[in-house]
Specification:
Blueprint lengths: L10 H17 L11 H7 L51 E2 L12 H14 L1 H4 E3 L4 H18 L4 E2 L7 E4 L4 E4 L8 H6 L5 E7 L8 E7 L8 H4 L4 H4 L6 H15 L5 E10 L10 H4 L10 E11 L6 E11 L7 H12 L3 H6 L2 H23 L1
Antiparallel strand pairs: 1-8, 2-7, 3-4, 4-5, 6-7, 6-10, 8-9, 9-10
Helix pairs in contact: 1-5, 11-13
The structure holds protoporphyrin IX containing FE (HEM).
Protein name: DUF3445 domain-containing protein
Keywords: Membrane, Transmembrane, Transmembrane helix
InterPro entries: HODM_asu-like
């Protein structure tokens, strides 16, 4: 993939042209959305003679149901204790479930630490964390607008438009303001990444040779789960998932159909987990290649992703958000039910998936710790 075609440093082109992009965005009709737009098609449909739909027209009723959390204290809120594993037979399914619009994104007390990492990576490893292909500009603006709309409605005391500073958003958690109208001072995806805790990936249909495929056309990824963004930008979903066992046989068809049918307004989520032997969020090297042998249980982390998918109504792009949580395995020690389910899930992985997730490295250590905890529980309750 020719990296020169990427726009990550390309604000020089983007900024002077954003006015045009915004006008084009406003003119794309809702009617065009079901036959999802390639960037070319998007420009072609944006003629001055078309009717402009009010922005709410693409939203279903539930989308406006975002109740403000007025006294939300991020500093005292620990990460949500998701436990996304189940014992029993392993099944390779999409595993998506609906999300209420008001529960789209999460905020918790890791915010400051992760925002600092984001800012540091943007300076020191920019092309590793942010990639933008030409033609994804309108969708990136729509991501920013969607994020701003959500945060200002859900957390109005933390994110708001400061008085006397038109066209800006104030992030009360970091005390930073960002210009959120053209001409932008930072790339819109970079701004969005400095508001939320999720990684942000944009997938656009036909953004490559295959018209029905969705291609990764822009991404901010602070927490890649063992993959290199610079390599995979511009790839279709099936190619991105090349290293994932059983993807081709069990998931490819259903995911591809699902993407073609997603409606604006619907939000779904799925969760997964990996194990790793360090505390790194920014993990590009595949897990199985990068783990130390015979790790100590105290060093093993469960890396859990809460992913959401939604179609953006104006551009038709699909936004894939990924929030990553690192939980030390030993933190489960007071949760015998979770330990039981976790051990069951780990042991039920088919061989190919176990190898992909590096079970040969951490498996024995994890199993013996889990069993010991469960023995204690059984003794205590006897
Ligand atoms: C319904 C949609 C999707 C499903 C069902 C799905 C499923 C999976 C599965 C099963 C894995 C293996 C790890 C695991 O979750 O246990 C995986 C890994 C991955 N997925 Fe997805 N995925 C979906 C959407 C996406 C999207 C939109 C992206 C775009 C960035 C993406 C990027 C990745 C990457 C980069 C990996 C790591 C691959 C590797 O190990 O090299 N996924 N996905």
């Amino acid at each position: 993939m020719a990296m020169d075609s990427l726009l990550h440093e390309g604000l020089s082109w983007l900024l002077p042209n954003l006015g045009l992009v915004v006008i084009a965005l406003g003119l794309i009709t809702a009617a065009a959305i079901p036959r999802v737009l390639t960037p070319k098609a998007a420009t072609a449909t944006a003629t001055a003679t078309e009717t402009v739909n009010p922005p709410h027209e693409n939203k279903n009723e539930s989308e406006s149901e975002i109740h403000p959390l007025l006294d939300f204290d991020v500093a005292t809120r620990p990460p949500h204790p998701y436990r996304p594993w189940r014992s029993g037979k392993f099944a390779m399914t999409m595993g998506v479930s609906k999300v209420k619009p008001e529960e789209w994104l999460d905020l918790d007390n890791k915010y400051w630490q992760e925002q600092e990492l984001r800012r540091q990576l943007l300076v020191e490893s920019r092309p590793e964390v942010m990639q933008l292909l030409h033609g994804s500009e309108a969708a990136c603006i729509e991501v920013l607008d969607t994020v701003v709309d959500y945060l200002t409605r859900r957390y109005p005391s933390l994110f708001y438009r400061p008085e006397g500073k038109d066209g800006y958003i104030y992030n009360g958690l970091t005390n930073l303001s960002f210009k959120i109208t053209a001409p932008y001072e930072l790339h819109p995806l970079e701004i969005a990444a400095q508001l939320v805790m999720e990684d942000l990936n944009l997938l656009v249909q036909g953004f490559g040779p295959e018209p029905d495929q969705y291609y990764l056309s822009a991404s901010f990824s602070m927490a890649p789960a063992g993959w290199y963004l610079k390599e995979r930008i511009g790839w279709p979903l099936w190619k991105i998932h090349g290293p994932v066992p059983l993807w081709e046989e069990k998931l490819r068809l259903s995911v591809e159909r699902f993407f073609l049918r997603m409606k604006p307004g619907d939000i779904v989520m799925r969760q997964n987990f990996f194990l790793q032997t360090n505390n790194a969020m920014f993990q590009q090297e595949p897990f199985a290649n990068s783990m130390l042998s015979a790790p100590k249980i105290e060093d093993i982390r469960i890396r859990h992703e809460r992913q959401t998918l939604r179609r953006l109504p104006k551009t038709g792009a699909v936004l894939f958000t990924v929030r990553t949580y690192l939980t030390p395995v030993v933190d489960l020690q007071d949760e015998p039910d979770s330990i039981r389910e976790f051990l069951g899930a780990v042991n039920a992985l088919p061989e190919s998936m176990a190898k992909y997730k590096g079970r040969d490295v951490w498996g024995e250590v994890v199993e013996s710790w889990c069993k010991k905890q469960l023995e204690h529980t059984d003794t205590d309750s006897a």
